[in-house]
Amino acid sequence: xxxxxxxxxxxxxxxxxxxxxxxxxxxxxxxxxxxxxxxxxxxxxxxxxxxxxxxxxxxxxxxxxxxxxxxxxxxxxxxxxxxxxxxxxxxxxxxxxxxxxxxxxxxxxxxxxxxxxxxxxxxxxxxxxxxxxxxxxxxxxxxxxxxxxxxxxxxxxxxxxxxxxxxxxxxxxxxxxxxxxxxxxxxxxxxxxx
Length: 194
Known about the structure:
Organism: Lentihominibacter faecis
Number of helices: 3
Helix content: over 70%
Strand order of the largest sheet: 1-2
Protein name: ATPase
Radius of gyration: 53 Å
Largest sheet: 2 strands, antiparallel
Structural class: mainly alpha
Region (Disordered): 167-194
């Protein structure tokens, strides 16, 4: 900076000037000193403008940094909100999955019971046909064959009883089984005994 150099020049003039004894006063060339002061005045507007520019630039940089800081904070808040929303979606999806698992298990039990009923009706129909065939074709003269049909009939009746028992146990298990908690996952839900 030119102004600093000129001020140093004034200091040097004062330091090297001849002094009056006992007065503390010095003798300087007034023209030389005035010339330096004029140069300082000429340089000062540029120095002041440069200092003002530096000040304005500093304020601009601070304002820009503040804007960027606020943008980063705003972006971080949006990301945090998105994470919270995604977590809420995950919780709702898990609850929906638990509900679907419960419905699926109930439907599977109903299908199993329906299958038992269907098999029972087929066995009942077959049992009726066997009795009909027995009465038409195998009267009293074929006692041994009739006994075989009776044995088959007994086996069919036993099978029906066994199916009815299995169907009854399935219904009892379905009624006694506690509702799965929405906090339990599919792997933690109690399994049905087969």
